[in-house]
């Protein structure tokens, strides 16, 4: 299956992408991974991307599209893939459609993870990270530490990242609504969109998604 995964910040796209890709036996292709791989390998596209990133500028669509096309052409993506973070706007969606047409392929579904805006803010703004080890993550509501402000694992101080403040989260949501959400309408016009609720336990959301895609989740 060839799937695009969309949803607002805090919808759990990264987590669901990993589980869905495993269940469907297809590679999970994320924009972040594409950038890191191309930059670390020093590919021509990676060098271009690094120039823009180092200058504090957005990486142009054509560079991102080039990376995605190259990754989708790899042998492990021959029977399908799950795209996470790409396309990010309608121009990229149109370019993806064109690239697939040239290869005689097409998307099978666009999985839209739906989460109420207030829940997104609650999920992200409630995160607390350990200053000693960023892998130690807690949440004031869903996974609170035994002692407020103290990491259960190492005793380090817990803090809220600047990117996780409510003000920043709401700005990120504005960007999502303006730039990325229109691709849902674009793909809905093609009859590809499958919308599911991303509320609840991770496993329940995965089962919901697999059912919507007409597949059974692995036990």
The mean pLDDT is: 93
Number of helices: 9
Cα distance, first to last residue?
20 Å
Query: Which structural class do the helices and strands define?
Result: alpha/beta
- Overall shape: it is globular
**Total beta-strand segments:** 8
The parts where pLDDT drops under 50 for at least 5 residues are: none
- Strand content is 5-15%
- Which CATH-level-2 architecture? 3-Layer(aba) Sandwich
Q: Level of helix content? A: 40-55%
- The helix-strand sequence is EHEHHHEHEHEEEHHEH
Neighbour order of strands in the largest sheet: 2-3-1-4-8
Rg measurement, Å: 18 Å
User: At the fourth CATH level, what is the homologous superfamily?
Assistant: P-loop containing nucleotide triphosphate hydrolases
Q: Which class in CATH terms? A: Alpha Beta
Q: Might you state the CATH topology name?
A: Rossmann fold
Textual characterization of the structure:
With 219 residues, this protein is an alpha/beta fold. The protein has a single domain, classed as P-loop containing nucleotide triphosphate hydrolases (Rossmann fold), CATH 3.40.50. Helix content is 46%, strand content 15%. It is built from nine helices and eight strands. It has a five-stranded parallel sheet with strand order 2-3-1-4-8, with helices on both faces. Strands 6-5-7 form a three-stranded antiparallel sheet. Helix 2 crosses helix 4. The chain is globular, with a radius of gyration of 18 Å.
């Amino acid at each position: 299956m060839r799937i695009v995964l969309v949803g607002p910040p805090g919808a759990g796209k990264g987590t669901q992408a990993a589980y869905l890709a495993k269940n469907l036996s297809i590679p999970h292709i994320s924009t972040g991974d594409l950038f890191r791989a191309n930059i670390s390998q020093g590919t021509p596209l990676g060098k271009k991307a690094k120039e823009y990133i180092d200058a504090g500028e957005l990486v142009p669509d054509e560079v991102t599209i080039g990376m995605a096309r190259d990754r989708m052409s790899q042998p492990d993506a021959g029977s399908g893939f799950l795209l996470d973070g790409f396309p990010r706007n309608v121009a990229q969606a149109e370019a993806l459609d064109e690239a697939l047409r040239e290869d005689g392929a097409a998307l099978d579904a666009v999985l839209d993870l739906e989460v109420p805006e207030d829940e997104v803010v609650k999920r992200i703004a409630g995160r607390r990270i350990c200053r000693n080890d960023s892998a130690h993550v807690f949440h004031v509501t869903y996974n609170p530490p035994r002692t407020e402000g103290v990491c259960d694992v190492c005793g380090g101080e817990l803090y809220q990242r600047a990117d996780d403040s409510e003000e920043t989260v709401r700005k990120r949501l504005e960007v999502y609504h303006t730039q990325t959400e229109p691709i849902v309408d674009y793909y809905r016009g093609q009859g590809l969109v499958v919308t599911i609720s991303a509320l609840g336990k991770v496993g329940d959301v995965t089962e919901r998604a697999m059912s919507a895609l007409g597949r059974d989740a692995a036990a």
